[in-house]
Amino acid sequence: MNSISPKTSRRGFLKASAATGGGLLLTINFTGIANAATGPAQINAYVRVMPDGIVSIMAKNPEVGQGVKTSLPMIIAEELDVDWSQVRVEQASLDTEKYGLQIAGGSTSIPRNWDLLRTAGATGRQMLVTAAAKTWNVPEVECTTASGKVLHQKSGRSLGYGDLAAKAATLPVPDPKTVALKDPKDFKLIGKFTRDVDGPAIVTGRPLFGIDVTRPGMLHAVYEKCPVFGGKAVKANLDEVKAQPGVTHAFIVEGVAPADKSTVTTQLYPGVAIVADTWWHAQRARQKLRVEWDEGEVATQSSTGFAARAQELFKAKPEKEVRKDGDVDAAFKSAAKTIEASYSYPFIAHASMEPMNCTAHYHDGTCDLWVPSQTPAQARSIVAKSLGIPEANVAVNLTRGGGGFGRRLNPDFAAEAAWISKVTGTPVKVLWTREDDMRHDYYRPGGFHHLKAGLDKDGKLIALSDHMVTYGQGDKYAASANLAANIFPAEFVPNLLFGATIMQLGVPTGALRAPGSNALAFTFQSFLDEVAHASGKDPLQFHLDLLSEKRVPPAPPAPPLTGAAAAFATPPFSHERMRETLKLVAEKAGWGKRTLAKGTGLGIAYYFSHAGYVAHVAEVTVKGDDIKVDKVWVAADVGSQIVNPSGALNQVQGATLDGVSQIYGAEITVAHGRIEQGNFDDYPLLRINQAPPVEVHFLQSANSPTGLGEPALPPTLPAIANAIFAASGRRVRDLPLRKASMASA
Amino acid sequence: MPHTLTVNGQARTIDVEDDTPLLWVLRDVLDLKGTKFGCGIALCGACTVHLDGQPVRSCSTPVSGVAGRKITTIEAIGETQVGKKVQDAWLAVDVAQCGYCQAGQIMSATALLSAIPKPTDADIDAHMSGNLCRCATYTRIRTAIKQAAGLETAKTEG
Ligand code: FES
Ligand code: FES
User: Fold this and answer.
1) Which domain range does residue A591 map to?
2) Residues near A287 by Cβ (< 8 Å), separated by ≥ 6?
3) pLDDT tens for each residue of B104-148
4) Which ligand is the nearest neighbour of the Cα of A208?
5) Which of A175, A279, A339, A379 is the most buried (most CB within 10 A)?
6) Does the beta carbon of A174 sit less than 6 angstroms from any atom of ligand 2?
7) Which residue in A63, A204, A687 is closest to B132 by CB distance?
8) pTM above 0.90?
9) What is the largest CA-CA distance in chain B?
10) Which tens digits make up the pLDDT trace of A588-627?
11) Per-residue CA distances from A379 to A266, A384, A393 (Å)
12) Domain for residue A398, yes or no?
C-alpha cells in the first residue's frame, strides 16, 4: 500500500544528510518522468496528491507511542499549507536512500527532522504555486496558498492542489535553500492539539501492530532461548515436541554471534524453535519441551554477588579516572562540612506492552520483514548478517510498535523470525511470551555510587567526588553503563573527581528511556538534596545558587562529530535555561508557599537530557511504610515550539508516571546468570490507582525545538525521593522502594 | 474438538483443543486481532473481552467454558451505546500513546460504565486497576471515562 507504481509517478527525493558540524544539508535526488494526469501525483518523497485534493503524507520514522506518526507529518502539512482534514498519513517502509535516518530513539525525531520536513512541505507548496502560476500565466509572487488551494487574488481565481498536482509533479524540484518557510507566527497546525492519526483504528481494534500481521501461508513460532545469557542448546526432545497437535517443525538453532566478541550486543541467540499452525499450538507444545543447555560462563553471575563485590571495590581507588577538576582531597580537608553516601539502583526491564515479535518471509535469497522496530535499519542488518545475504535483499515493513522505550532498538527477534522462515520456507511470525520478553531484554544496567561532597563555611559546594561501580566487558562499559564526564554538577564545582570501576557482566544491557540519565539523575539529584539540607539552605535556593555560574572553564572543544554520532550529540548545557525551568516548576508547585500536613513533603529535582530541560516537584505523603505520591508538577523547556501539544503532554505525563513506576517497584535481579522475574506479578508496573495527577507547564524559549520522549523521566525519581525525605526524614538511597518495603499499595 | 461460540452476535464453530484460551481462538482462528496479548496470566488486562456483558481476561478463559455464551470484542463494542460513547471519548481525549493496551482499557471502561453509569474516582480505581498501561496514559483514561459518563464536559487537554 505504500508503493507507487513508477509509471504514474515522478520522484523528487529530498535527501538529508548530516553536514560537518551537525547541520543539515538538503540535496535533491531527482529521478524519473511520469504521466500523473490520471492517478496520484508524487510531489516528493513525502507528499503525494490525489486528483480529489486528498494529500498523502509519509510518516518516515517508526511509531512506538511517542507520537511521531502524527507530529512529523504535521510539520509537512503545515508548510505545504493544507488542512489536516485533507491529509492521510502513511507509514513509510525502510528506505534510507529516500528518508535518511529512520529511527525512534534519543528523542531525535523532532530536532533531526524539523528543518528537513518543513523544507519538504515548503518545496511541495512551491511546486504547486509554480504550476498554478504557469496555468494562469501570472507571476508566482501574485499567488498565495491556503487550505490546499493556490489563490490568485487579483483575478479572484483559485485551483485546488488536486487540480495542480499532475502538473506540479512534472516540474523540477526547486533548490530547497531558495524555498521560503512560514513565519512561525503564521502556523495554523503546528502547536495545535492534534489527535493520533491511528486513533480510530486503535479504539475499534483494527490490526496495526506487529503482532497483528498475517501473511498467506504463515506459520507461528515460539523460540526458547537458554535462560542463561550466552548458553547454547545441546540437545532437546524434538520428536516428542513435533508429535504435539499442530506442530510442523521443531529444531535447534545454533545462533550467530556478532563478529566483535568484546561486547555483549544484539545477535541471533541460540535456542530451540517450535513452529505450528497457530501460536497457541506452538506455545502448548513448548510446555513439553525439555532442553539440555550448555549454560556457559555467565551462570556464575548474580545480583547479590555484584552487590557484595561493589562494596569491596569501593574500598579501592576507581579503575578509571573519568574527570578531574581542581584538587578534591585538599578541598575536603579544608571543607567546613563533608557529606558521604552510597547509592544503588537495579537493572530494569523495558516491559513494552506488546511482547517482541516479528514476521518474516524468506524466499529466493531475499527476506521480507514486518517488524515493530525502533531501528528498522538495524533489523535489516542483523537479518542480513544472520542469514548471510546482502542488506539489499532485506525489505523492512514497519508496523506500529506497542511501546518501545529503547527495547526495540535491538531487533534480535527479527533475526529469529528470518532464520526460522528460512528453515520452514514459509512466512513465519515469531511471538515472545511475556516471560521471554522479561528474561531476554537488554536491561537498563544497575549501578553503585559512592559520593562525597564538601561545603565551605558559607554552605557553598566546593568539592564533589563520585566513584561509580558499574558493569562492562573487559575495560569497556556495558551499553548505557558509563559515567560521562559532563554529568551535572561537573563544571559547577571547582574541585571534582569522577571515577569508575567495571565489573564483568554477561547480561545484555541497552538504552532505556533517557539512558544513563534515568539512573544518574536519581543518584546525583538525590545526593545534591542531601548536600542542600546539610548546607542549611532551602533546596531550591541551594540549586539556584549552584546553577548561577560555571566555575570550571569548559573543556577544549571536541573535534566535530560525524555520521550517527553527530545525530545524537547533545548540545552544551545552558544553566540559564535550567534555572528558568526550575523557577517555573517551583512557582507552579507553590514551593515554600504552602503549609503541608505532617507526613507530607515536597521534593525538587531537575535534569538536562536529550537536549531538554526538565524540572519536577513531587508531593508525597508517608504513613509508616506506605508512600503515596500525591501530585507531580513538571516544567519543561524543549525550545520554541511544541509541535503537537496533545502528544507532548501525553509524553511528559507518561514519562513522569514511568518514573513513579520505576521508583515504586521496578527491579530485575540476576541469579546464576538468569533473570529471576518473569511477569507482572514479580515485576509490577504502575496501575491507575497508584497514578498521581501530573501538572505540566512548557516554557517556550527561543531555541530550536527538541524531543520529549525521554527528558521528562529522569528528574521524577529524585523529586519523589527528596519529597520522601521532606515528608519523613527517610533518605532513599537504594531503589526500588518496594525493596525497602517502602511502597504504596 | 468442535466448539460453537457466539462472537459479536454471530455463531462460529471452531475445532480446537478444549484448553485453548479464548484469546488465541479470537486472534488466530477467527482473525479478530483487536484483542491483545500482554501477559497470558490475567495480570495486564490487554486481552479483556465481554462474556455475557461481564469483563473477562480471554488469555485465561479456556474455550471449553464459553460455549453458548455471548462474547463481545473490541471490534463490536461500538455497536453498544455505552461502548460507542467510550470509544468516542477515547478519541476526543486522544488517550493512546502506543495504543496497545487501549482495546482492553475500553472493554473494561465499557463494563464499568454499564454497571455504574456515574463512577467515582474510587470506582474507576477499582474497575480499571486490572488494566496495565505501560505508556501510563492513566490521566487521560480517567478523563475519558468521566467524559463518556457525562461527568466532565468535553475537554481535550489534561
Ligand atoms: S494477556 Fe490476558 S490479562 Fe494479560
Ligand atoms: S498506550 Fe501503550 S500500553 Fe497503554
Assistant:
1) 303-348+443-553+574-744
2) none
3) 999 999 999 999 999 999 999 999 999 999 999 999 999 999 999
4) 2
5) A379
6) no
7) A687
8) yes
9) 51
10) 999 999 999 999 999 999 999 988 999 999 999 999 989 9
11) 10, 8, 12
12) yes
